[in-house]
Amino acid sequence: MHKDHPDIGPKPGKPFRVQHVQQYFTAGRPLTMLTAYDAITARIIDSAEIDMILVGDSYGTTMLGMSSTVGVTLDDMVRATAAVAAGASRALVVADMPFGTYESSPAQAVDTAVALVRAGAAAVKLEGGRRILPQVKAIVNAGINVMGHLGFTPQSENHLGGKRLQGRADAAPDLIADALALQDAGAFSIVFEMVPAATTRAAVNQLNIPIIGIGAGPDAAGQVLVWTDMAGMQDWKPSFAQVFGQVGAELKHAAQNYRDAVVNRTFPAPENYHEN
Q: Which residues make up the binding site for 3-methyl-2-oxobutanoate (predicted)?
């Protein structure tokens, strides 16, 4: 239940579900989504009443130090999904299907989706348009919620020639055709990443499901960011991100305070231990 729209959304204490995504979209209430990869972060984000938590394969580049997402395995995603699901009691948990775990066949895709749902995901996300329609249909037919992902798709970064805007001008109709195909295949929403605002706007006017934007302009039905970008955890951030809090600086400050307290022998203090 949302304070501005009392007739939509989950009741207090109940989880946010896919039907609530559509309710918010229909009511014109913007949807919120952030990534998380562990239980503590998920619990904090969940307590902020973020609608959806994405267990992104960005886990590899943010938490594991990888240079791209293609090295992330299904085991990585299952472990991260289980952790996030343990920490989030309200938000809809969406898990990325990692590179190499769905492209071969619909059967492979269903097996991967099942593994992520067993770990605690309420929905799965996979990258691509018409080329993966058989996989999307098979997952939906297996009773699993699917979120699409179009525009810049990080798993295909090498094929796309690097991180660059997708769906410009002449390429816009093709991207929108992919979006319509995903909708027809049963996807409940689609992420548009690094897509011109004009293309997103055109897609919004043709789709009956919400677009969740990341670097896709203000007309998307919702927005998603990687939590470390949103929270200022590193010196660099993507141009499409905005820093909403200097959590990285605060963490560094706390670590420095701890170091100084240990070196100066002010920690542990008497209240931190038992003499006998």
A: 57-58, 96, 125
